[in-house]
Amino acid sequence: MTANAGSSAVDVTTARALIASNPDVLVVDVRTAAEFETAHIDGAINLPLDQVDAHLRQIVADAGGRLLLICQSGNRATQAQKSLCEAGLPGTVVLSGGMNSWITSGAPVIRGRQKWSLERQVRLVAGGIVLASIVADLWLPGARFVGAFIGAGLVFASLTDTCAMGMILSRLPYNRGRADAAEALACIVKPARSRT
């Protein structure tokens, strides 16, 4: 990734040109396995964000700075990029806007079984807990504070650009899919020309 080694984020047009012009660029999708199975970029590998930190040393040792990181909106990919940069791999690039911008631009995707995105799951769980706590407050005084706690957590998540609920939900079997970190890591260490 010589042309954009100093960049931290690229748009869809630049990302497509980078992939087409440099066979050593590896697209690493840090969404959950379920999100990846729903739709992903052809040739991308899946290494969910919650597994990136556990494999930092191997990624840094073997990747050589040829990673294009993607997620649904760009936030998780940016978190992965930060971890990789702090661990000694500064040349990674994030797809600005993530899969949302890729799909909106009309770029090709591989589609699989449709599942809910992690963001949608967070909204369902947070809203459900808040609603249940308000209803429960009719019989259990003080139950509304559970909803207040969830609201405070959402405000914190917004201010810090992190989401503890999303990280917890990403560990559920529904979101695990069939992705295997070992398989993804093997793709990182393989020379791009030998990938199939």
Strand and helix layout:
Layout: E1 9-10, H1 12-21, E2 26-29, H2 33-38, E3 39-40, E4 45-46, H3 49-52, H4 56-63, E5 67-70, H5 75-86, E6 93-95, H6 98-104, E7 110-111, H7 118-136, H8 144-160, H9 164-169, H10 173-176, H11 181-189
Helix pairs in contact: 7-8
Domain Rhodanese: 21-111
Protein name: Sulfurtransferase
Keywords: Membrane, Transmembrane, Transmembrane helix
Protein architecture, described:
- With 196 residues, this protein is α/β, with parallel strands linked by helices.
- The protein has two domains: 124 residues, Oxidized Rhodanese, domain 1, CATH 3.40.250; 45 residues, no CATH class.
- 52% of the residues lie in helices and 10% in strands.
- The chain has eleven helices and seven strands.
- The strands form two sheets. Strands 1-6-5-2-4 form a five-stranded parallel beta sheet.
- Helix 5 links the parallel strand 5 and strand 6.
- Helix 7 packs antiparallel against helix 8.
- 30% of the residues are buried.
- The N terminus and C terminus are likely disordered.
Task: Please summarize what this structure is.
This protein has helices spanning 12-21, 33-38, 49-52, 56-63, 75-86, 98-104, 118-136, 144-160, 164-169, 173-176, 181-189, and strands at 9-10, 26-29, 39-40, 45-46, 67-70, 93-95, 110-111.
The overall average pLDDT, rounded, is 80
Question: Within the largest sheet, what's the order of strands?
Answer: 1-6-5-2-4
For the report, how would you describe the main beta sheet? Answer: 5 strands, parallel
- CATH homologous superfamily label of the largest domain: Rhodanese-like domain
- The helicity comes to 40-55%
Are there runs of 5+ residues with pLDDT below 50, and where? 1-6, 189-196
CATH architecture of the largest domain: 3-Layer(aba) Sandwich
* CATH class division of the largest domain: Alpha Beta
How many DSSP-defined strands?
7
Rg over C-alpha atoms, rounded to the nearest angstrom:
18 Å
3D shape: elongated
At the fold tier of CATH, the topology name of the largest domain is Oxidized Rhodanese, domain 1
Strand content: 5-15%
Structural class: alpha/beta
Query: Helix segment count?
Result: 11
Q: In sequence order, what are the helices and strands, one letter per element?
A: EHEHEEHHEHEHEHHHHH
Total count of domains: 2
